[in-house]
Design a protein that fits this description.
Layout (H helix, E strand, L loop, with lengths): L2 H9 L2 H12 L2 H17 L10 H23 L23 H15 L3 H11 L4 H8 L3 H18 L6
Length: about 170
């Protein structure tokens, strides 16, 4: 594939790249930046693209990896290093110890709503929120992984409908 054909095909992916970037960043400005960074990396690494392979998948992989790397970089930037003797700042309590009564009430109402789910939905949902992976839940409950995923999805959907007052 010539450079010109490569450039034409790559720019033809603009709508798809913008849509994918927005789904990752959930912000128009950040999505535009991510698309531009993806274009830059794709153009500068053109020689690594194998002719007759899927350009769209290649560009999406570049975008996803760029997003992940940018995220990791921003997390590292926001990490506080404590160089004081005995790690004074790091060991300072962050919690004031005061729990607002409304938050306790909200937690109880959310748990009550979760308990109101049918058992075949509640059990996979609780296991998922406790940190079990989909395949672990499927194995323990003797279900297919697709069934586990759909039950967790429908549980979330039902809970979002029931708990609209708590939406951020």
């Amino acid at each position: 594939m010539s450079s010109q054909e490569f450039n034409i095909q790559l720019t033809g992916l603009e709508k798809n790249l913008k849509r994918f970037a927005y789904s990752l960043t959930m912000n128009n400005e950040d999505a535009r930046d991510l698309v531009q960074e993806t274009y830059l990396k794709a153009l500068s690494n053109r020689e690594k693209f194998i002719d007759h392979s899927n350009l769209k998948a290649w560009a999406f992989t570049i975008m996803k990896n760029t997003f992940i790397n940018n995220y990791r970089h921003s997390v590292k930037e926001n990490t506080t290093l404590d160089h004081t003797k005995d790690l004074y700042y790091l060991n300072m309590p962050q919690d004031s110890g005061f729990t607002h009564p409304e938050s306790h009430y909200a937690e109880q109402e959310i748990l009550k709503t979760i308990d109101g789910l049918d058992v075949e939905f509640r059990l996979p949902f609780r296991m998922h929120t406790e940190g079990y992976k989909y395949n672990e839940i499927a194995e323990k409950l003797n279900l297919k992984i697709g069934t586990v995923k759909s039950r967790i999805f429908f549980s979330r959907k039902k809970l979002m409908g029931s708990l609209q007052d708590y939406a951020a």
